[in-house]
Amino acid sequence: MTPIRVLIVDDDPLVRGAITMMLDGADDLVVVGEAADGTQALAAVDRHSPDVVLMDIRMPGMSGIAATERIRRRPRPPEVIVLTTFDTDDHIVRALRAGASGFLLKDTPPNKIAQAVHAASAGEPILSPTVTRRLMQQVASGAAAYERARATLAALTPRERDVVIAVAQGRSNADIATELAMSLTTVKAHVSHILTKLDLTNRTQVALLAHDAGLI
Fold first, then answer.
1. In angstroms, rounded to a whole number, what is the distance separating the alpha carbons of residues 168 and 164?
2. By the 8 A CB rule, do 108 and 90 touch?
3. How would you write the pLDDT of the chain (216 residues) with one tens digit per residue?
4. Angstrom distances, CA of residue 121 to CA of 9, 53, 112, 135
5. Which member of 11, 72, 174, 185 lies 3.0 to 4.6 Å from 99 by CB, making a disulfide possible if both were Cys?
């Protein structure tokens, strides 16, 4: 099996070193590079072609949020998991809107970090339904955001809207297949079409759009 390539971005060298030590113990993960800020992260993505980026939110110079948005808009971008202390819910939501797949607490146990990297690499949701609900409660969408989200979702078929709601509820592809009586291949095709139609980069952005539209 080809190892999953990981880039670590954090302005604290001790944090970078600790995470590198954690992940180096896994046979199927390899840390290919480190960066100290968003600008360095962009260059490191070009240089190392990682599969997953572990991205700090608050850094001098270019923030993790700005770097995430720029990385996720590239062709065939790596997945991005933001690192946080979870005392800044607004920053987390902004990072997720920018295209991050999910987040990790900086004190997450090593095995959980490895599991999250695997999940992100496989395109699976990282946020649990409980965490998703907590984050959604922090989003004050407003009437304008509601109308924009509704107009955007109008491009979907009724079946695609069902998939959107299930994705927003934190369901995995396998769960959606069972719940909506579809094959796993069909669910994956629906998710891919939804992302293309809505000009989004991952499932988390789908969930935030569904929240803005009042679907969950």
1. 6
2. no
3. 689 999 999 999 998 988 888 887 777 899 999 999 999 999 999 999 999 999 998 888 898 999 999 999 888 899 999 887 765 567 777 888 888 888 888 788 888 888 889 988 887 767 665 566 666 665 555 667 778 888 889 989 999 999 999 988 878 889 999 999 999 999 999 999 999 899 888 888 888 888 888 887
4. 17, 10, 14, 22
5. 72
Fill in the amino acid letter for 197. K
User: Which residue has tokens 């094959």?
Assistant: 183
State the alpha helices, DSSP H only, in the chain. 13-24, 38-48, 64-72, 89-98, 110-121, 129-137, 142-153, 158-168, 173-179, 184-198, 203-212
Dump the DSSP string for 55-100.
EES--SSS-HHHHHHHHHTSSSPPEEEEEE-SS-HHHHHHHHHHT-
Please classify residue 122 by burial: count the beta carbons closer than 10 Å to its beta carbon, then call 0-12 exposed, 13-18 middle and 19+ buried.
Answer: exposed
